Amino acid sequence: MLPVGLLTPIGGSLDVSEGTAGLTLTVTGLVAALAAPLVTAAVGRIDRRVVLCSLMVLLAAANALAAWSPDFTVMTAARVLIGIGMGGVWSLAGGLAVRLVPAGSVGPATSAVFSGIAIASVVGVPAGAYLGELAGWREAFLAVAGLAGLVAVAMAVLLPPLPAENAVALGGVLRLLGTRRVATGLVLVALLVTGHFAAYTYVRPVLEEVSGVPAAMIGTLLLVYGIAGIAGNFAAGARVGRSLRGTLLVICAALAASVLLVPLLGLSVAGAAILLVVWGLAYGGVSVSAQTWLALAAPEAREGATSLFVGVFNGAIALGAFTGGLVLDGFGPRSVLLLGGALSLGALLVVLLGRAPGTAAAPAGPRA
């Protein structure tokens, strides 16, 4: 997520447009979508601790390369490597909780894993914008490289040996696409995440050109969004076990409204801030709610469903950033808001017309 809050300085430094700079998110999402199932299959029976530590070292090196990038070609190569590491880590980490804690603690432990993903998706942008404003965009990438290195060391020291239990069969994973509720959940993920990133990837030019927010305040507003996103993550996690369908209806409606109303009500710093809070609250609940849908849709094959979720989620990030960039360069910042809002309304229709899977006592999302 780091480039989203840094598009303007990255584009200026590497001499590309903001829409082109948005490809740094597109390529990472696309590669991560492919890497999620492929890396899991490629590592075979290698100890998962070794694989995870290696992938984190790759992430550290790739972010350091991004920080050094003298041109956009090198930056793109670095972001490809980040996509490989991210897709691999995400798909493997999702299934580790059951192996690390007693049986009675698997639910809360799995919730913690997926809350990390949701929180990272909303904190990455304001953190990048803040660090970029404070020290520069290259230093922001260096900071992430250092954090990735620390996590690699922590995993090497703290994780037990994790030998592979079963070989992953790609054919079995792909057959889940024929399950109606799984397919419906993946369409929902695709619409919500594509719509969000079509607009949010370019939130900086939107805030500057539509809302008139000074550059010095961008980081603060994105931090407010990030805090709202964390709150939305835990609020949704507390609700999905009681009403999955209702939670998703609220999320879809709030996402559509907050994005579409920016050109009408977000023409000042205060108005933009209020809409960003609603936007953050809504999107913060997407990961936990969508993951819960898929886990309940395929309870006998949750790892396979998670692999598909990761692939579609990251593919949607890539598609949203790419289409948003084309629309931004062709029609201006207001157009990305219309695109994002329209896709969110499409997701609302999917929830209304689709049949949600039954709820379970222990959803895959975080508890407050």
Account of the 3D structure:
By secondary structure, the protein is mostly helical. It has a single domain (2-353), classed as MFS general substrate transporter like domains (Growth Hormone, Chain: A), CATH 1.20.1250. It is built from 18 helices and no strands. The protein has helices spanning 7-14, 18-21, 23-42, 48-68, 72-93, 97-100, 106-134, 137-158, 170-175, 180-200, 203-209, 215-239, 244-260, 262-265, 269-284, 286-297, 302-331, 333-353. The protein is globular.
CATH level-two architecture: Up-down Bundle
Q: What proportion of the residues form beta strands (DSSP E)?
A: under 5%
What assembly state would you assign to the polypeptide chains in this entry? single chain
Low-confidence stretches: 359-368
Distance between the termini: 24 Å
For this structure, the CATH topology is Growth Hormone, Chain: A
Count of domains: 1
Mean pLDDT: 82
Number of strands: 0
Helix content percent band: over 70%
Largest sheet: none
CATH uppermost class: Mainly Alpha
Shape: globular
What structural category arises from helix and sheet content? mainly alpha
Question: CATH-wise, what's the superfamily?
Answer: MFS general substrate transporter like domains
Number of helices: 18
